[in-house]
UniProtKB/TrEMBL annotation:
Superkingdom: Bacteria
Protein name: D-alanine--D-alanine ligase
Keywords: ATP-binding, Ligase, Membrane, Nucleotide-binding, Transmembrane, Transmembrane helix
Gene3D superfamilies linked: ATP-grasp fold, A domain (3.30.1490.20)
Amino acid sequence: MRKTKLLWHKITHWEYWPYQIVYLPVYFQYGYYALRMRSLFFFSLANTGFSNGGFFTTSKKEIYDTIPKEYYPKTLLFQPNTAFETILKSIQKEEISFPIIVKPDVGLRGTAVKKIETEQELKNTLSSISYSFLVQELVPYSNEIGLFYVKLPNENQGKITGIVSKEFLTVIGNGKNTIQELLLKNPRFAFQLETLAKNPKINLNSIPVENEKVTLVPFGNHCRGAKFIDESHLISDELTTTFNSICNQIKGFNYGRMDIMFDNFSDLENGKHFKIIEINGVISEPTHMYDPKHSLFFGWKELIRHYNCLYKIAKFEEKKGKKPIAYSIGKKEFKKHFEHVNLLSK
C-alpha cells in the first residue's frame, strides 16, 4: 500500500517526473537553436571562462579557481589513491578543521557528497573513492539558496532570473514516533527511506524528543529529499548590484546557477557573510520552477525563457568569431559523463 501511495504521489507531482518528459517542449526549441547555429553544442559558447561552458564533465575545482577566494570555502583537489597522510597534511596546512565536506570533482546532483566528522571517518571514506575528489571546509551558515544569473558578454550588468531556497530533509520530533515513522508521514521524505537506512550514522529507530529538529541530509539536493521553494520575489536592486560586482570578477561567466550558503538575507544583499558553494554552468536548471506550488506549464515557461537567454549569449559569442566545441568532442564528453555516472553510482 505504501509503495502505491508513493507511486501515485510521483505521478501527481511533476517535480518527480523523468526529465525526458519535463523537457519535452525544450527539445524543439533546442533543435531550432542548434539549426540556426549549425551546432548541437552551441551552448558551450555561453561561459568562455569554463571549459566547454561548464558542461557535464567540467571540473568543479577549475570553476572554483575562477572565483575570488574570499567568496568560496577553502577547497582542495585530490586524485584517487592519494595517500591518507598526504591528504591530512594538506588539510592541516590549509587550516581546514573537521567536520569537512568530501565530494566528487565532477559532480551529479549531490551524488556522493558526504559530511565527514573525523579523521578516521575520512580514512574509511577514501578507501571507496575511485575518482578525483574535493575536500572542502564546512560552511558555518544554515541558509541556502540557488541564484540564477544571466548576462550578455558585452554588458557589465546582468540580471538575477530566479532564486530558490532549499529546505533540508529534516524531521521534527513529537516524543512518540521514531525517525522512520516521522519520515513515512511525508512522501518527499519517504522516498529517501531506503537510502537513509544504509547510512550507519542514522538510527531510524530513535525517537526525537518533542520539537527536536533532526536534519538527516544537510545538503540542498532535490534528489536527496530537499524541498525547493521559489523565492524569486526576493530579487532586489541591492542583491543584483552585489552579484553583478561578484560575477564581473569571474572571467567568462555569463550563465548559470550559484548555490550559496549565507547567514541572513540582509547581509547577503550587501555581500557579507556568505559563501558560493559551487557554480553550475550551461547545464544549470532554473530550479525555482520545482517549487510544488508551480504547474508544469510554469516549469516549461521558465525552461524556455532560460534556454532563450543561453542561445542569445552563445549567438553573441559566435558573432565575435568564437566557435562551439566540435561534435566529436561533445560526443566524447557525453560518453565520459555517462561513464562517470556509473562510477559514482557504485
